[in-house]
């Protein structure tokens, strides 16, 4: 086999591999992924319900094991930091520190919410395929007849879905946290390190 033919075949094989990788998508549909995550989390909450009261460490452990792995924390971090996630305003080390703090705060907040779990049920809303790179799946959590819609915006990460943003009862958490972080930066005189250290995301009250 001559050199030219080998080179041509090599390029052909490489191109085919790259094309396959570029167009590969998660095997699960977005609703199936969200249902899997929700069912796994709720199953753990039900199984350990008797241990959760007055035991925040146990609740945080459940959240860390059953929810945290499915969150695209890097994408969430960029969304929340906004323009401050660029090299013009922050370093890679500062962004990594923010991501760590932000992840831990979310686990703390989710843990506090799930500690109150008392066998609530949920229903998955009909899903409309839009071919968007960030599909949205909505769940209605039912607590004693009161429904709370939670929408999960997904992203394909390494051929698997992950959550990049969450909307709870009409509140876009990514946008709300971004406004809160910008306000924190302002309160700290533009000092990113201080803003990262003092940032406390609040999903219920939009801090100004």
UniProtKB/TrEMBL annotation:
<keyword id="KW-0732">Signal</keyword>
<feature type="signal peptide">
    <location>
        <begin position="1"/>
        <end position="24"/>
    </location>
</feature>
<dbReference type="Pfam" id="PF05494">
    <property type="entry name" value="MlaC"/>
</dbReference>
<protein>
    <submittedName>
        <fullName>Phospholipid transport system substrate-binding protein</fullName>
    </submittedName>
</protein>
<dbReference type="InterPro" id="IPR042245">
    <property type="entry name" value="Tgt2/MlaC_sf"/>
</dbReference>
<dbReference type="InterPro" id="IPR008869">
    <property type="entry name" value="MlaC/ttg2D"/>
</dbReference>
């Amino acid at each position: 086999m001559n050199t030219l033919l080998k080179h041509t075949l090599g390029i052909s094989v490489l191109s085919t591999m790259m094309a396959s990788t570029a167009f590969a998508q998660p095997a699960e549909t977005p609703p199936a992924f969200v249902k899997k995550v929700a069912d796994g989390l709720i199953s753990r909450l039900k199984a350990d319900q008797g241990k959760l009261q007055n035991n925040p460490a146990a609740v945080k452990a459940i959240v860390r094991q059953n929810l945290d792995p499915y969150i695209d924390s890097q994408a969430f971090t960029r969304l929340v930091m906004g323009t401050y996630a660029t090299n013009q305003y922050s370093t890679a080390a500062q962004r990594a520190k923010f991501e760590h703090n932000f992840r831990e705060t979310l686990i703390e907040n989710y843990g506090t919410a799930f500690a109150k779990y008392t066998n609530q049920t949920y229903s998955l809303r009909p899903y409309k395929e839009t071919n968007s790179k960030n599909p949205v799946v909505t769940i209605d959590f039912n607590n004693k007849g009161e429904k709370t819609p939670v929408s999960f915006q997904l992203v394909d990460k390494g051929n698997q879905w992950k959550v990049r943003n969450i909307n709870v009862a009409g509140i876009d958490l990514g946008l709300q946290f971004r406004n809160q972080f910008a306000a924190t930066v302002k309160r700290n005189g533009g000092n990113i390190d201080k803003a990262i250290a003092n940032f406390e995301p609040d999903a219920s009250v939009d801090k100004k």
